[in-house]
Amino acid sequence: MYYRADLRRRGYVLYSIHDNIPDSSDGRIFEALIDWRNKKYLEDLSLDVKRGLHHIVNQYKAIPGTPPKGFKREVIDIGKRRNGLPHTVSRWVPDPETWEVCRQAWVMRSRGVPIRQIHDQLRLFSALGSYTTFFTNRIYIGEMVYGKSVIHDYCEPLISREVWDLVQSMARKNSKDYNPMKGMLNAKHPRRANSRFILSGLVYCARCGSLMNGDSVNFRSGKRLDYYHCGKSHRNMECKALRIPKEALETIVIDQLAQYIMDPSILQMTEEEMDNNHREKTDKQRISLAALKAETEENQRKIRNLAIKISEDYSKSTALVELLHELEHKESALQIQLEALRAQADKNLTFTPSPQYREDLAKALDLLKTEDDRSLKKRIIQQFVKQIMAEREGDKIRGVVYFRYPEIDDTTTKSHRRESNP
Ligand SMILES: [Zn+2]
């Protein structure tokens, strides 16, 4: 709720795209229409899922998609479509060919046999990762979970409740830090970081403040719709936020970013700030360098005095010589510190001049618009964008992009230059 209040405070609800929206240096409000094709997909999707399919699932136990291991499709005729063609759907029924081997896998697992060993013996799947899904699918105790609803007596159970419970407790024990939601809530989750969604880890739901995940829907026509979806809305429908089409959101954010970066007043402001920061940094360094020099001089003075004392009175020499060693030791430590600080100060003298900085920004922007490499795009965006709050209402996307203090990372543009001009 904090985010929502924050958005309101920034005039998020009060302004529309035609008003003169005040920009602050760190947050920009946007509102845009979604591409009509995306909109159509979204409507198809919600119609499909919300009405048609739920009805069909509940009434006929029919389910779309590929059945899990141990099951096969059984096509049933449920009457005629509006256009007169027969309307067939399919339900999942036990597949006699794989039923027993699946049961065997569950029994082995319930006795603590490691997944790798089960795999070596039964070869249920080609990849080890598939077993995790297999051993958590409630269909094997006869339950069909579909969207929000559960059909408890969907089919004949493959295993008993006891076997199910044993396997589930095993999975919990094996994962050190058992929290099924943790992964998806973590902005640095590897799956999120590697996805083709270049804003992943940056987009938050404007309604509830949760991270939004990248997700896809595949249509029977072969088309795919990528979208960002509120983590809470996805998991257990706690949030009613709608899906936001990926392309539309990414285009808006890149546009906003381009406007932000090239805004002359923002440019001037950030350059002044960089200059100030740099001056502050060098001032601090000058002060600590002076202090260190004074300390070194004081130490050297002590060494000289001590040397004189030792030469004057040999009776006290043992203790004094020890002290002298101590001071000499300190002297070499001070010299090392001085050298390090001087080297640092030399490096900081070369402040990136404005034209170079602007050129780098323009280059980053150009890469963002022309480059196909998603990981490069993602890296550039992450340098400038701190956070995006977004939500969809009908065919409109609204939100705020929060920018961070832009500093060009040399490695992004330079390493790329090398790649493109070998
Ligand atoms: Zn939400």
Description:
Helix 3 packs across helix 6, helix 10 (246-262) packs antiparallel against helix 13 and helix 11 (264-312) runs antiparallel to helix 12. The protein is α+β, with helices and mostly antiparallel strands and 422 residues long. It has helices at 2-9, 36-60, 96-110, 115-122, 130-134, 161-174, 182-185, 190-194, 231-236, 246-262, 264-312, 317-348, 354-370, 374-384, 410-420, and strands at residues 27-33, 71-80, 86-94, 144-146, 149-151, 203-205, 212-218, 224-230, 244-245, 385-393, 396-403. Among the domains are: 40-174, Putative Large Serine Recombinase, Chain B, Domain 2 (Hect, E3 ligase catalytic domain fold), CATH 3.90.1750; 264-348. Bound molecules: zinc ion.
SSE map:
Layout: H1 2-9, E1 27-33, H2 36-60, E2 71-80, E3 86-94, H3 96-110, H4 115-122, H5 130-134, E4 144-146, E5 149-151, H6 161-174, H7 182-185, H8 190-194, E6 203-205, E7 212-218, E8 224-230, H9 231-236, E9 244-245, H10 246-262, H11 264-312, H12 317-348, H13 354-370, H14 374-384, E10 385-393, E11 396-403, H15 410-420
Parallel strand pairs: 6-10
Antiparallel strand pairs: 1-11, 2-3, 4-5, 7-8, 8-9, 10-11
Zinc ion (ZN) is lined by residues 205, 207-208, 210, 230, 232-233, 239, 241.
